[in-house]
Amino acid sequence: MGNQERPKWDNPIQFLLACVSYAVGLGNVWRFPYLCQMHGGGGFLIPYLIMLVLEGVPLFCMELAVGQKMRLGSIGAWSAMNPYLGGVGLASVVTSMYLCLYYNVINAWSFWYFFNSFQSVLPWSDCPVNANQTGLLEECEKATPTQYFFYRETLNISPSINVNGGIHTSQALCLLLAWIISYLFVIRGVKSTGKVVYFTATFPYVVLFIYLIRGVTLHGALNGIQYMFTPKMEQLANPNTWINAATQIFFSLGLGFGSLIAFASYNEYNNNFERQAIAVSVINSGTSIFASIVTFAIYGFKATLNFENCLERSRMLLLNTFDLAEDSITIDTVFDWITKLNATYPEQFAQIEDKLEVCDLESELDTAVEGAGLAFIVYSEAIKNMPLPQLWSVLYFFMLLLLGMGSMLGNITAVITPMRDFKIFSRMSTEMCNGLVCMFCLLLGLSFTTTSGNYWFTMFNDYGANFSLLFVVLIEIITVSYVYGMNRFEKDIEDMLGHRPNWYWKIMWKFVSPLLLVAVFIVYIINYIQGGTPTYMAWDKEQGKTVVMEYPVFGQVFIGLLLVSSVSCVPLTALYVFCKKRKQGRHDKRENVLSTVSA
Amino acid sequence: MLEKIFLLLCFSSALANQLCKPDASDGYKVRISLKTALGDDAYVWNENEMFFFRSTLAFAMRTHVSGQRFEVSNIVVCNETPRVSFWFVVTQPQNLSQLIDKEHVEEAIRKSRSRINSAFLLTDNTLEFIGIQPTLAAPVEPVTPPWLIVFGVVMGAIAAGIIVYMVSTVVRKKRKKNEKTNGDDTDDETRVKTIESGRAADGVYNLSFADDERL
Predict the structure, then answer these.
(1) For chain A, which end, N or C, has fewer CB atoms within 10 Å of the first or last residue's CB respectively?
(2) B 63-102 near A (Cβ less than 8 A)
């Protein structure tokens, strides 16, 4: 610990908003609606809320308590809890570092889309014309303009992870901008972060509210909302539903990265973190549900639009083939006419049978998408069909930026705070230290802007954090409940808050949360083993769609490295501390012997 | 005499009918979607509109096939349907039994496409010549891509902000240095510092005791 006093939040509101800004991120917008759709719509809320109570709130509160008590970053805090388990903090820092590397790439994409929204015609609304102006570009024709814009103009993606190319300049520039802004947000540590979170935590809600009103007034939005909220209760019997609910709560709250410990370490000693933990967890889940209402309104709009376009195309096909007057078939009567024409002109109908598409609203609503695909492809497709699309596009991508930047604040703080607990870094000024970290992450992050960069991004996204986080938090809760001891932990909390935690907290910390985590952990391992060779989705230029590809050997080795590098911190540090203590013990014993002799 | 004229007329119309038929080798099918293009403002397609269409085609042929004066009668239309689609062929002005080649007709229509479209208040999609692809408009490429402009604006704002911040830091440091050189204030500062650290020591949890407990 340096000579200066530890920096503090200006007031508890800043801490609360920082936690909200960190926890409420892109996952609330693009992962939760997907899970809701996959697991029976409104019915998914039941396991989700149950897991929030059993797992989310207790673990969140535990991390805040540890950080506020120890007043150190994750490495120092866990070393102070138990010297052998300092590796838990180190594993958190390693995982946070991986997250820092790839997460800002998403912000770079948000910037790119945001800048491109300031045009009279949105670039992803139409396909560009091909070289000799006879038609549209082939790749764009086979896919959709939004997919083409994302895969070709944004990413300039290569056919597979083996094929490498140069850095895509526009992406690199956007990534540079993202890192500059991130650096400016954390430049003076909590002093600057505390001011920024007033905006990054609250403005996304303004945009979400505006979008809610816009969304539910769109044509066909009610189809989507109805579809989402009709619960399919049979999904509750599927164990995957409960596992996914547990995993979603876990990752959505950002546990295990060390950000919460870092944020809490800047608190006043007597700050009431218990109430804040409940508040932030509830706000986070509420935002997920709110965002999914908006998302499903947009889904409903898009699905209805696609359905009606499909009907229109069928109508035109029928009109053109049978040369009927234009107003004889309307959109509503298309299906009746199909059966009528099939009966009266079977041979002619047989000729166009393969060209006739099957239009089904349910199947349009069923197309569930998650992740970057949802945020950047599906949403931008829906936006281009709205009236005044530029305004909605700017608002939406600005909101994505705020959500992403808010989460980045937590990620960078999780890396910097433990670093500054070490003497080497605490001697440097805050600005210099933060600048070095940001520069390092920027340089390494440029590799994600190459043509195969998106595949590496997917690898980091899928394997970089998930497994190690579960492991880290499991060790954390076991350390707190059993190694450090629930009695000592209760005493610490009483010291900080003035009252002991009640029976709810004790039962959750000692039994329920660890058991749930072990269950999720085991299911994860089983899925990894059963999943076979890890695969990824590659963009096939010729077909104009994504295809499944297996990772090559070097890719699988890298995945292994990602997993091992963070998980192995725990045993390796324990071993290191053990050896150091043994050496020191021997050294002390020798000294003691000498002193008695000299005495 | 009258009979001969009558026979000739019948013959020519029969010939014209023979020349124009669906899937004629030198003919094109036209499809018009009035309701799609104009909705409630759509006009009714009748004989007069057909006459207008034939005259625009004759205009196109006159303009782009050099030397020959095409008349409305040179454009032969057949097989009209309620869809509003029909086939047409173009006969030579001098010889009504000879057709103009497909390529010339296509070229003429392609070059006058925008005039024909605007004559009928229609677009490439709603006035279709089956077999003739419309030339797509050349993409308007601005000199600087628009996103770069916005990027430049944001970068400029951030650079300005950084410069303001650094200048303010320098100004603050200079002001502090000036205060220090005055001398009296330094004692107050050190006194204040010790008081502050003393107060802090009272409030900060002393970890050294905690270590002993754990060991």
Answers:
(1) C
(2) 81-85
